Amino acid sequence: NAGVMQNPRHLVRRRGQEARLRCSPMKGHSHVYWYRQLPEEGLKFMVYLQKENIIDESGMPKERFSAEFPKEGPSILRIQQVVRGDSAAYFCASSLEPESKNIQYFGAGTRLSVL
Amino acid sequence: KQEVTQIPAALSVPEGENLVLNCSFTDSAIYNLQWFRQDPGKGLTSLLLIQSSQREQTSGRLNASLDKSSGRSTLYIAASQPGDSATYLCAVPAYSGAGSYQLTFGKGTKLSVIP
After folding, report:
1. Rounded Cα distance, A33 and B88, in Å
2. CA separation for the pair A110, A101 (Å, rounded)
3. Is B84 in a helix, a strand, or coil?
């Protein structure tokens, strides 16, 4: 049973380009969380999705960032018109159920570098 | 709003020493607490999860304790080894009110075990 798969592992973009980060949850998991880890900072929650629905996007920047989790395929975190401050590690986690007692399993992350 | 603090930020010990990592949280109404390990450039590996009704959990050389009333958790590592060198993160889930149990992380303790 493969774990949470994120790709690409490393992504380099120039300012103004778009970044697309993909996350395939563990088999059987339909709940996906995205977190961002800025340099020298802790992980911060961004968004929580279930299949085809955004449940909580309270941690998402208001502009340029969007997320989706379609019925088929991976969850996508999309950053439009990237700026240097977007450089960070982006982690995806999945869980079987959303309840608090369930463990969130993390992927290896995508490290975004904006030149 | 839940805040998680980890002290110290960095720790260097000689191989074989026992050590304690500390985690404190401001809101004691937690469901559980989780300790993770993060290796440089890698994802998060879950080490131990302590439910709110438990006082400690053990896995091999690791022992995590939880004192909800004082808002503290400790991770005890026995007979440290160079392979234990990593950043250790603690995290607690918080119900966002918008349908998600997002994890709130501390900034971590960077451990170096010197051979």
Report:
1. 20
2. 26
3. helix
The tokens for B68 are 């909800």
Give average pLDDT by consecutive 10-residue segment, chain B, 115 residues: 92 96 93 92 89 92 95 97 97 79 92 96
Searching chain A, which residue's CA lies closest to the CA of residue B45?
A106
Are B101 and B95 in contact by the 8 Å Cβ rule? The answer is yes
Q: Do B98 and A41 lie within an 8 Å CB cutoff? A: no
Q: What is the pLDDT of residue B28?
A: 87
Amino acid letter for position A103: I
What pLDDT is recorded for position B40?
85
Fill in the amino acid letter for B65: S
Would you state the structure tokens that stand for residue A98, as one six-digit string?
């959303």
CB nearest to B32's CB, from A6, A42, A100: A100
Residue-wise pLDDT for A8-29, tens only, equals 999 999 999 999 999 999 998 8
**φ/ψ of residue B100, rounded to 5:** -130, 150
